[in-house]
Amino acid sequence: MRLSLTGRLGAATSGLVYDAVLAALRADTVRAVDLDLTGLDRFDAAATSTLVACHRAVHVRGGTLRLVNIPPAVRRQLFTAGLLGLLDSDSNTAQAPPPAPAQPA
């Protein structure tokens, strides 16, 4: 099952994502959940906690959680938090994400 996330993933919306993942797992045929992050434009610490909680919930039920289409800014945050190795993704997680664009002085 694929769930597409858009907008901001943070304290106000993280519970909705977790609930959606749990609802998907209630179907007997669902063992893999893909979170499509294409539409995310904001991502905070609450979001990282939610992704870990989703990963645990899916894993306990014998399934897999995979992140797909991870925007570069989100990939950097996940890498910095040490979560790219924990969470499956659609690309090589062993490599560091590209550096953030330089900010004008």
Write the layout of secondary structure elements.
Elements: E1 2-9, H1 14-25, E2 32-43, H2 45-60, E3 64-68, H3 72-80, E4 88-89
Parallel strand pairs: 1-2, 2-3, 3-4
Molecular structure report:
By secondary structure, the chain is α/β, with parallel strands linked by helices. 35% of the residues lie in helices and 26% in strands. It has 3 helices and 4 strands; from the N terminus they run βαβαβαβ. α1 runs parallel beside α2. It is globular and about 50 Å long. The termini are far apart. The model has no long low-confidence stretch (mean pLDDT 84).
Q: Which strand order do you get reading across the main beta sheet?
A: 1-2-3-4
The tally of helices reads: 3
The rounded distance between the terminal residues' Cα atoms is: 44 Å
Helical proportion?
A: 25-40%
Quick tags:
105 residues; alpha/beta; 4-stranded parallel sheet; 3 helices; 4 strands; 35% helix
Short account of what is shown:
Helices cover about 35% and strands about 25% of the residues. It has helices at about 15-25, 45-60, 70-80; strands spanning about 1-10, 30-45, 65-70, 90.
